[in-house]
Amino acid sequence: MESLKIKQMVSKYSVLICLVISVILIEIAALVYPGGSLLDKNSIGFHWSKNFLSNLFATTAINGSENPGRIWALIGMAFHAVGYGIFFINMSKKIFSRKGAKILKFIGVANIIFIFLIATPLHDIGVLSIILTLIGLFTITVFILKSKLHLLKFCCIICLLTFYCFFFLFGFGYLGLAIIMQKVYNISSILLVLGLEYFTKYEDFIQIKSEGQKAQVTNS
Questions:
Q1: Residue range 140-186, pLDDT digits in tens
Q2: d(CA 159, CA 138)
Q3: Long-range CB contact pairs, 203-210, < 8 A, 24+
Q4: What's the gap between Cα 162 and its chain centre?
């Protein structure tokens, strides 16, 4: 009986557990990172305002030293990938739309693979996970905007804007600002994922379907 309760608790809070472990391990990786950044190759340690997170996954730090934090970063990214994967799969079960549910389930499974690839030599392919995550959050936002979850509407829009700002800054070569915005969109994304995971339920979205059907009946 006790083991069953533990399994239920782990299942219920699996997304939170994965993301907390991920953040802790990434922090450990940053603490032992030797040094060097795109802005200063001779800098010491990892600077959140000067280093991209991808620096943590390299075998050799930018300053030429062996990177002992790589293993921590890899494991951290694995937990991150699983956490986001479970989240999108769980959200697919809350959405009444079959098409929307299929999109979210696909993104959930694909993200488990692609997010982890960011921390490997296949980094460029793994970056597709950012696009998949953006599509997934945009899909969820469409349904949230039709719901009565007003605070989450605001959170969804802010989170999406941080993604777009990062792409703009990185694409136009504003690397200093892009490095900072990378942390901003990651934090906002994690907070939004946790908010959506634990403060939404199937009933929040099935109500949208009911109101849509009533509107159709009225119009006809």
A1: 999 999 999 999 999 999 999 999 999 999 999 999 999 999 999 99
A2: 10
A3: 204/94, 204/147, 204/148, 204/149, 205/94, 205/95, 205/96, 205/143, 205/147, 206/96, 207/147, 207/148, 208/96, 208/143, 208/146, 208/147, 209/96
A4: 12
Does the pLDDT at position 102 exceed 60?
yes
Cβ density class 172-196: b for 16+ within 10 Å, e for less: eeeeebbbebbbebbebbbebbbbb
The encoded tokens of residue 70 equal 């790589």
**φ, ψ (nearest 5 deg) of residue 43:** -70, 155
96 close to 147: Cβ distance less than 8 angstroms: no
pLDDT (average), residues 88-106: 92
Q: Which two tokens stand for residue 77?
A: 């990214």
Which residue in 86, 67, 82 sits closest to 28, CA to CA? Answer: 67
- Check whether 44 has a pLDDT greater than 60: yes
The beta strand positions in 24-144, using DSSP E, are none
